[in-house]
Amino acid sequence: MDFQQAIAVSPTTPSCDFEVSVAITCIISWLIPRSYFTLEKQLMMGISVFPGNREAILLATVVGAISAMCVMSILYVLSAVTISSVTKNLDRRADAIVTGMGRTVSAVLFLFVSIEIPLWLEVFNDVPRNSHYHKRRVTRSTLELRHRVCWSVLNHFFAVYFILLLYFCNASILTIIRSTIVGLICGMLIVISMHLGRKISRKRFKQRQKIAVAGSVLVSTGSALAFTYGTLYVADIWLKGSADSVGAYGLVAFFAWLGICFLVNFFYYWSMQLQKSIQEKEAKNDNEHSIFIINGILASDGFSITSDEELSDEEDATSETVELALKLLKRSRSLMTATTTNMDSISTETSPTEKEDDYDTNFSLAATIESMEENSYTWRRWRTADNSKIDQLVPTEPPPSSSVEKMESCLKWTFWTAISAFHLYLLIINIGATIQQNVVRAALPGTFEFLYAPGFVSGPVCAWDKANSDATIQTFDSIEDAHHANFTVIHCGACGACSNWNDLSLQWTTRSFLAEEAQNCIKKSLFSGTEEDIQACNQNDIGFSEECASCWTQDELCAKKNCVFIYLQSFIFNQVSNFNVELGDITTAACDEALCGPVFVPCSGATRRRMNIISDIPRTQDQQCNVAEGNWSEIFNHP
């Protein structure tokens, strides 16, 4: 199916992607592995704090995860049902834009996955940043661990929740269910693939590197395809170009995004290697004041670290190792507040020991943590040339945030805030516009019947006795009555506030841009301004007489009240200047006609369609007053 066919669906056609929403599927697929690996970290952290209570820690982790899943499920279902219901008749062009945006968002998520594959496969570990050192209470109970697990999972969900909402628009419940199931399956496949990749190549770092590179390249290519397909939807709506130009645009979009993917991955890898190099230098400088544990055995100082490979999560310091190190620290009156592992950081607030050599060899880790005072220690993990596992406990202070970290954090939150706010804006606009369009569809047939009844050309007419500024203008019950009085018909319907020489002239001379000029008057008071501002715009900028300008002002205020979301939505698919009035695609002009026309037309009297003027608002022939007798080009001396 080409893009023209894809967007030519009726307004009531279910949302984009038909059977499965790509956006929903990809967001769920991204959420599953992120949440899973977060749970894995929280579980390992809990075990390291409470090594003798693994069953309780596992239970707390499971309960926390289930609690988070319940909250997410309730929000997900309520949001999906509500939004899909209120946007059931979403404008087909807005629907196509949402489709394109969904695929573009999927491309961004694919890009994030391509970056995280090496982390998940433990090709390189995420470097500790200043934010990892911030003080927080250590998990002192299973209840607190449960809460932390619950929130850590919800944190990932809320990161994409406000983005996800937009893609429920006009989606059938069946489509949402299918998309969710497919997303869950894909997410679990990612988790399984990462575990298999780590298991197969556990002791083969080079092989693991190759798998990570291949996976990143494959996912980056999929990201480029998703980005291309998404931007083509948007380009077809916005640019309305030929098939050749759209195809060329797609080719450029594909290679441009693929290049961005490779650059981002390269930059991330480079930053990891740079930070790792800095840490190695710091580790060598700290050797004299460090505690080393090789393969779980406390070692003396004086050996060198010769390999550049860090240990994986499963090769982390054991709880016994940590306890042994802490005992040594306690004996030497060392003070500790934080032990940062490869999974997460554990912050503690402690008080110093009072006795230098008097300590209980069977003290618990939790008791030790509570008995020590503020200082900072960090585990550094390395592997020597003979493949020995080294855990180095070095005293460190929370490093100051570098300018790069500050900029990265600022860009991250700015990007997330901007994307989420933009999605929420589009969601609100689409909901509001759909509700207003449904009202217009219900009202428009009645308005047409009122304003353009089958015999409206044979009813009352407005006529003048001569075609100049001194003419006498009055209403007659019929065309025949006007002719009997030697008057010439100006327009169908009774005369109104705009049935005078000045305003009749404006109807003709501004016929190709009057609707746009009137729209500009509304813009001036869309979010600020007063009725007086609109009146001044109509009277001074356009040139209507005071009474006629008042009719236009009331009409524009009516449109502002009833059609503002339709107007804002028109910016989404580049249709601000579309003034079609029909039941198919509901425009701002159609909304104004349906809801404000029954008051405006009798007030103004003279309108372009009543004067049989072909204007910038296309009209069907049965809505034109073909009995109007004026040759406007000659009368107003304006071609």
TrEMBL record:
The chain crosses the membrane at residues 20-37, 57-84, 104-124, 145-167, 173-192, 213-235, 247-270, 413-433. It comes from the Eukaryota. Signal peptide: none annotated. Keywords: Membrane, Transmembrane, Transmembrane helix. This is Transmembrane protein. It comes from Nitzschia inconspicua. The lineage of its organism: Eukaryota, Sar, Stramenopiles, Ochrophyta, Bacillariophyta.
